[in-house]
Amino acid sequence: MTENQNILEANSLTMSFGGLTAVANLSFCLRKGELVGLIGPNGAGKTTVFNMLTGVYAPTEGSILLNQGDKKQAISGLPPYKITQKGIARTFQNIRLFNKLSVLDNVRIAFHFSRSYSMFHSFFLTPLFWREEKKITADATELLALLRLEERKNDLAKNLSYGEMRRLEIARALATHPQILLLDEPAAGMNPQETEELSELINLIREKFSLTILLIEHDMSLVMKLCEKIMVLDYGMMIASGTPEEICHSKRVIEAYLGEEV
Amino acid sequence: MKKKGLVVAIVAVLVLTVVVYFAFFAGKSKQANTNGKVVKIGFIGPLTGGAAAYGINAKNGAVIAIDEINAAGGILDGYKIELLIQDNRGDTSETLTIMNKLIDQDKVVAIIGPVTTGPTTVAADIAGQKKVPIVSPTATGDKITSLSDYVTRVCFYDSYQGLIMGKFAADNLGKKTAAILFDNTNDYSMGLADAFARTFQELGGTVVSNEAFSEGDQDFNAQLTNIAAKNPEVVFVPAYYSDDAQILLQARALGIDAIFLGGDGWDSQELINGAGVAAEGCYFTTHYSPEDTSEKVQNFLIKYKEKHQSEPNFAAPLAYDAALLLADAIERAGELDSVKINNAITETSGLSGVTGEFSFDENRNPIKEVTIATVKDGKFALVDKVRP
Amino acid sequence: MGLFVQQIVNGLALGSIYALIALGYTMVYGIIRLINFAHGDIYMIGAFVGYFALTTFNLPFGVSLVLAMLIPAILGMLIERVAYRPLRKSPSIAVLITAIGVSLLIENLAILWFSPDPRPFPQIFPNMPLDFFGIKISIPQIIVFLTSVALMIALNFLVQKTKIGKAMRAVSQDKEAASLMGIDTDRIISLTFAIGSALAGAAGVMVGVIYPRIQPLMGVMPGLKAFVSAVLGGIGSIPGAMLGGLIMGLTESLVTALISSTWRDAIAFGLLIVILLVKPSGILGKSTREKV
Amino acid sequence: MAQQTKKNSTYDGYIALASALLLLILNLILVSGKMPAYYSGILGFMGINIILAVSLNLINGIAGQFSLGHAGFMAIGAYVSALISIYLQWPFIVALLCGGLAAAFIGILIGLPTLRLKGDYLAIATLGLGEIIRVVILNLDITKGARGLTGIPRTTTIFWVEAIAIITVIVTINLMRSTHGRALLSIREDEIAAEAMGINTTYYKVFAFATGAFFAGIAGGLFAHIMGYIAPKNFDFMRSIEILVIVVLGGLGSITGSIVATIVLTVLPEALRGFAQYRMVLYSAMLIMMMLFRPQGLLGTRELKVSDVFKFFSGGGERDD
Q: What is the pTM of this model?
């Protein structure tokens, strides 16, 4: 396996809702270990791309291929939970935590398929149940420690601060053992200090779990600093892609953002 | 805020508990006031819920009888009857609980009720098990008295009435085609409809249309339109009076001029109040006729109106008779022993009540005359009294 | 063929009553997302108000109808103020249980006050059929149908053309935005209850006219059916409620006539489930997509 | 470690609860022979209501699927087990299980399409399904329609009811603590996020529906064999509402809440018996008051633990949800 292998290929993805085309004929590849930024003005179709990649929407046209080892498999049209099980995890732009459950439980839920046991064991509390539950709790606690949430593990998710919620979403996504992590505006609503910490955190988890990360973000400084490659979307079409420097100097990108106060 | 809510909730529960205890002790002290010589009889019927109209009438009828008996010095040399009234909402599981309560807790010697067939089915089983007789005023389901030896009723059973009406339609009225419109969520209605159809066909008639409706229906136009298309000579509607009034009105509005026939469910002043001229000329079987000039009937009607400011429906005189029957049986049994009382009930013969003279067949169904009534000039009129 | 048309006529008369009750459901659901279980009982109260106005007080029909709309309207506002408004921020299921409680309370109080005996509703219009080319339509059926249609047209005018109607639509779209625009949302919700309840009250009188029997539990089944009608037509949509009510009435009438009344409820609910599965937003409702 | 002891005490609470219930049942077995039928009858209905409430709570409170058709499943269990007892004379427990399985089967059959719906729409659809089941029973010959089914052996004893109620409670509580229970909870909290965590939400929704239906079916079987007579009227829409009221009053998602509410709501009408016609008025007024002052139910989403009882008696019983 080489470092530069494509882990994900999206081929001419199109998504239309009724008459409205949110994403048109979009193709791109993610290489293993890459950290790619997906930017574009509001309503450009960025979150729609995430929703197609994670199975929330089935693309109207086009295909998504996931490379695992040697085999390529089409994942477009699969239900979200299957895609998650195949190794793509995500966070949500408008935070979607399990509000009335504890922080720890939020993470434990995400171990659902990777560390599962049959119904029988949960009905009768067999030794296997206790063993597995102990492991799940230990692993979850470890992840929480990594994301500096350990002290809050018994609090309800809805009582967390904004930054903590964003981190918990990341912890939860990591617990599904992803190869590809999709982060939807992880820095939204954060102050510069928090954003700084977040960028360190992203680098840390990327190293630790050898992740491929696709990131939607409006904070340009974060994107420029973090990403090796940037894709720019406007009106559902890719208008540019390349290194941060190339993007900065792309005429089309500047045009697209003109008038937009970012 | 949350704590306040919890406190309020707890206080509410506590207050209720206190209320309950109060009710409990109030009940106890009332017993103490009657100086020992008391016979307890239970009453079970729907005082709330959909069948409440019958339950409340039955309760009122039974109370009138008990008051009369007590005013006349009670039974068994000075024993007063205490009627313990329980609401079963027409529900079978409530009935089970109440049967247990009346028999185990309150130690009643006999029970009047339940009023409707479903609950009586459940009560019959327990009555047999615990050997405490029940006398149902109005449960007409064919099978209920065969469920246990401790169930008696003072009304006719379903197929008996259907049979009489079928005969009346074919023989007395000389009709050849009939339509049936019945409530198929109600066993009473189904029983009458079956028996009517069987008898009418045996006697050479044809049932040209068999339509059903469900409890609580308001609109019978669809069924009546179908019936109108078949143009029958008579329409048999074994249902309760409020449905019947509706059906009559809607039938006349659709231009159906057939003769309408029914069962004891028709017997209420409300039928005429509701249907008006549409009710003219219909026939139905019933237990007694309010037009009956006998002292017993008129006396009952006067008392009922005096006490309740309303006209009784058929459940009231039947419950009255059920109470009379029980009092008579206890008197004859000579002691407060449920088994002996039950024997005395079955041996009853010639006891005269508001709804006729009572004797019982081997299944503890009453052998008494069936009244056939009609509506003439806005009033009920007696047509015939039929003996089986 | 004549028989079939006759059944359609019957269905339309029944359907117009369902439609009147369904309107109240749909308006209340549209504005605060509450299945107001007590709505069927308000309809019952309307019938009783009409009854007492016509019999005890000997008032003319028009006045009785107005009273039978006015008193339920006040009752509807009162219920909203006392039982639902304090729960505006509670989970919807708690409000639903409260609504069930209110429904049971009204029913049982009515049994206590009015006695459970069914009462015959006075016959105001001659109970005779008019013959239209072999199709028999009774005078009460015509009165009910015309009154219902008139009330629905009036309601549509109110909602589409007046300022209050605009405010109501705004509140049902987005309560917070509406209150930012200076709309007193509580007042509008209260008003919605009043209008919905008034229509239910009118339906109660209509039922008295066409099926002249009233009793305290008369609202339970029609209430349920009317709600199904509202969902069928697209909940929150006023033309939807009318359409749903008429479809419901027609279906019931035709099923009873052609199959059997015993399967009627099953088929009515079956129809509902099919609609929900095929087009969850109802026939005339707008579908909304959850934002991810 | 402080955290560790806290966790342990929670578990202790559950274990203590379970053993308290077990003790109760032992007592019941001991006294059931002597107990007046009035009390054992009420306890029987209470047990059946506990099974119904806990199983509905699994669907409504834990998986967050708003179902209003529970009486329908109860009816299937009641009729299937009663018919087996009458015509095949299989052992009681087998008849019960068949009733439960039949209910679960129908639950899966109708759950698969309808569980695509959400919230109030699902509630109305399940209400409709419950009514359809009732109408079908009303129209079948084998069920004897409106006449009702008589001659069911009255095999249900207080022992069976309480034993099955306790099994239901323990199995449900165990399930809630496992990964499968958390999967159900996550669906209640946010279905889209649950899918994103790799949870097959359709599977779990149908699972909750089927399990709830299974226990409701068993409860129906117990009911049929306690009454000896069942009719479609026993399983109408008001019955579903009654169960829902218990669940909401106890607190959606709280198993112990369901138990407490069942006890209150079984004893309350019994206690109000003396008020005859005023009884239902008082009951409904109470219901409204409860919801106004405590809309999240008696216990909210939390469970009552033995330690709470001690805390209550030592004066510090108040805590937040």
A: 0.86
SS3 state of residue B249: helix
CATH number at residue D92: 1.10.3470
Q: How far is CA B387 from the centre of its chain?
A: 21
- Chain B hits for D287, Cβ within 8 Å: none
Contact C117 B222 (CB under 8 A): no
Please tell me the CATH superfamily of domain A96-177, with its number.
P-loop containing nucleotide triphosphate hydrolases (3.40.50.300)
CATH class, A1-87+178-262 region = alpha beta
φ/ψ of B119, rounded to 5, equals -60, -35
Specify the number of domains making up chain D: 1
Q: Tell whether C86 lies on the interface with D, counting CB pairs under 8 A.
A: yes
Name the closest residue on chain B to residue D148, using Cα atoms: B118
Q: Which fold has domain B159-286?
A: Rossmann fold (3.40.50)
Q: Which of C173, C201, C170, C151 is nearest to C21 (CA)?
A: C201
D280 interface with C at CB cutoff 8 Å: yes
Q: Which range (A227-236, B125-134, C113-122, D122-131) has the least confidence?
A: C113-122
Q: Write the single-letter amino acid at C236.
A: G
Cβ distance B287 to B353 under 8 Å?
no
Query: Matching CATH topology for A1-87+178-262 and A96-177?
Result: yes
Q: Residue A1's pLDDT band (boundaries 50, 70, 90)?
A: very low
Strands of the sheet containing B370-376, edge to edge, are: B206-213, B177-183, B234-236, B259-262, B283-286, B370-376, B379-386
User: Contact A244/A227 with Cβ under 8 angstroms?
Assistant: yes
Q: Regarding the domain with residue range B38-156+292-369, which homologous superfamily does it belong to in the CATH classification?
A: Response regulator (3.40.50.2300)
As to burial, measured by CB atoms within 10 angstroms (0-12 exposed, 13-18 middle, 19+ buried), residue D107 is: buried
Task: Single out the residue of A89, A21, A28, A90 nearest to residue A61, CA to CA.
Answer: A21
CB contact residues (below 8 A), chain D span 180-199, against chain A = 180-183, 185-186, 189-190, 192-199
Measured N-to-C along each axis, helices D179-189 and A127-146 cross at an angle, to the nearest 10 degrees, of 50
In a domain, D3, yes or no: no
Q: Which of D3, D178, D188, D303 to mutate to test the interface with A (most CBs of A within 10 A)?
A: D178
Of C97, C227, C290, the CB nearest to D245: C97
Residue extents of the structural domains in chain B: 38-156+292-369, 159-286
Q: Domain residue spans in chain A?
A: 1-87+178-262, 96-177
Nearest to C207 among B50, B184, B218 (CB): B218
What pLDDT is recorded for position D321? 41
Q: Is the Cβ pair C261, B213 closer than 8 Å? A: yes
Write down the ipTM of this complex: 0.84
Instruction: Tell me which residues of chain B, numbers 94 to 153, contact chain D at a CB-CB cutoff of 8 Å.
Output: 96-97, 100-101, 103-105, 118, 121-122, 125-126, 130, 141, 143, 147
Q: Is A8 helix (H, G, I), strand (E, B) or coil?
A: strand
pLDDT of residue D184: 94
Share of chain B above pLDDT 70, in %: 90
Contact B226 C3 (CB under 8 A): yes
Distance between CA atoms of residues C45 and A206, nearest Å? 67
- The DSSP secondary structure of D114-146, one letter per residue, reads HTTS-HHHHHHHHHHHHHHHHHHHHH-TTTTGG
What's the mean pLDDT in B80-89? 90
If you count residue pairs, one on C and one on D, with CB atoms under 8 Å apart, how many are there?
A: 118
In this predicted model, what pLDDT tens digit does every residue of C178-220 receive, in sequence order? 888 888 889 999 999 999 999 999 999 998 888 888 889 889 8
Backbone angles phi, psi at C66, to 5 degrees: -60, -45
Residues of A in contact with D200 (CB under 8 A): 79, 81
Give CA–CA dist B354/B60, Å, rounded: 14
pLDDT of D32 over the 60 cut: no
